[in-house]
C-alpha cells in the first residue's frame, strides 16, 4: 500500500504569486518521492495551469452534494472533476465547527463525490471535550458509520484521523494515542483502506506517525504552506 501525503492549504495564501511559489518548491522537491502526493489549494487556485503539471494530484477542500442548480456560492463534484481535481476533502473539523456540517451532510457529499469519480479524504476526530469525557471511540464510530452509510465504493475512501484538539494548536496527538485510534478505526473499514493522521504535523514528528503509529500517510495543514518543510515531511515517509 502506497503512503499518501496531503497538503491542505485551507484559506491560504492570499495571492496567485504566493501560491505559485509554494507550488514551485513542492514540484522541485518531489521528483524522487515514493509516496503519493496530493495538494489541496483553495478553489480559485485549482485552475492554475502550472498546477496541472506538478507531478502530484490535485484535491479540493470541499464540495456541494448537488451536481448543479440554484445554490449560490457552492462548487459541485462535476465542476471539480472537469477542472482536473482527483481528490476532495470531506468532513474536515473546520467545516463541522464553523459551518455546522452534520454527519448526514458529510454522507451526502461523499456519495456525490464518488458519483463523479473523485477520491475521498474523509476526516473524523474528537474534540477536547469529547476526549476528556472518554467519548473518543464513540465519536469516531458514529462519524465513520454515519459518514459512510450506504456508501458502496469504499475503495476510493481514505480516512483521515484528525483529533480536533490537535489541529493548528501545536498540541499534536501522541504516537501511542494515534496508534490506538488507527487500530480502532480499522475495525470499521476495509483492510486495505488508507488511514492517515492529521493535526499539528511537522517534519520533527511526521515520520513517527507512519513508522510507529501505523498510519498510511498524513494530512498536513499549516506546515504544507512552507514548501521546504512540506518536502521534509514527504521525505520522512520514505
UniProtKB/TrEMBL annotation:
Catalytic activities: D-glyceraldehyde 3-phosphate = dihydroxyacetone phosphate
Transferase recorded as keyword: no
Cellular component aspect of the GO annotation: cytosol
Signal peptide: none
Active site: 92, 162
Pathway stated in the Swiss-Prot or TrEMBL entry: Carbohydrate biosynthesis; gluconeogenesis; Carbohydrate degradation; glycolysis; D-glyceraldehyde 3-phosphate from glycerone phosphate: step 1/1
InterPro entries, alphabetized: Aldolase_TIM, TIM_sf, TrioseP_Isoase_bac/euk, Triosephosphate_isomerase, Triosephosphate_isomerase_AS
GO MF term list: triose-phosphate isomerase activity
Name of a matching Pfam family: TIM
EC numbers, comma separated: 5.3.1.1
Keywords, alphabetical: Cytoplasm, Gluconeogenesis, Glycolysis, Isomerase
The keyword Metal-binding is assigned to this record: no
Localization per record: Cytoplasm
Group of enzyme by EC: isomerase
Positions annotated to bind substrate: 8-10, 168, 200, 221-222
GO biological process, one term: glycolytic process
Record-linked HAMAP family: TIM_B
Record text on subunit structure and interactions: Homodimer.
Family statement drawn from the similarity comment of this UniProt entry: Belongs to the triosephosphate isomerase family.
Function summary: Involved in the gluconeogenesis. Catalyzes stereospecifically the conversion of dihydroxyacetone phosphate (DHAP) to D-glyceraldehyde-3-phosphate (G3P).
PANTHER family (alphabetical): TRIOSEPHOSPHATE ISOMERASE
Name the record gives this protein: Triosephosphate isomerase
Amino acid at each position: 500500500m502506497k503512503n499518501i501525503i496531503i497538503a491542505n492549504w485551507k484559506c491560504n495564501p492570499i495571492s496567485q504569486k504566493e501560491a505559485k511559489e509554494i507550488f514551485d518548491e513542492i514540484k522541485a522537491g518531489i521528483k524522487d518521492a515514493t509516496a503519493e502526493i496530493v495538494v489541496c489549494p483553495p478553489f480559485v487556485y485549482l485552475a492554475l495551469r502550472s498546477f496541472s503539471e506538478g507531478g502530484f494530484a490535485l484535491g479540493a477542500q470541499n464540495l456541494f452534494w448537488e451536481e448543479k442548480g440554484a445554490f449560490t456560492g457552492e462548487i459541485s463534484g462535476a465542476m471539480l472533476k472537469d477542472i482536473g481535481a482527483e481528490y476532495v476533502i470531506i468532513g474536515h473539523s473546520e467545516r463541522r465547527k464553523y459551518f455546522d456540517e452534520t454527519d448526514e451532510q458529510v454522507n451526502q457529499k461523499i456519495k456525490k463525490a464518488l458519483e463523479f469519480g473523485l477520491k475521498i479524504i474523509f476526516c473524523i476526530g474528537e474534540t477536547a471535550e469529547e476526549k476528556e469525557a472518554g467519548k473518543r471511540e464513540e465519536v469516531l464510530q458514529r462519524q465513520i458509520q454515519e459518514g459512510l452509510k450506504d456508501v458502496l465504493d469504499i475503495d476510493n475512501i481514505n480516512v483521515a484521523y484528525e483529533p480536533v484538539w490537535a489541529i493548528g494548536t501545536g498540541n499534536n496527538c501522541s504516537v501511542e494515542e494515534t496508534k490506538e485510534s488507527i487500530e480502532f478505526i480499522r475495525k470499521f473499514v476495509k483492510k486495505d483502506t488508507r488511514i492517515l493522521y492529521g493535526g499539528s504535523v511537522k517534519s520533527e514528528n511526521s515520520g513517527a506517525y507512519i513508522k510507529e503509529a501505523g498510519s498510511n500517510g498524513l494530512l498536513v495543514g499549516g506546515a504544507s504552506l512552507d514548501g521546504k518543510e512540506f518536502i521534509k515531511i514527504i521525505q520522512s515517509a520514505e
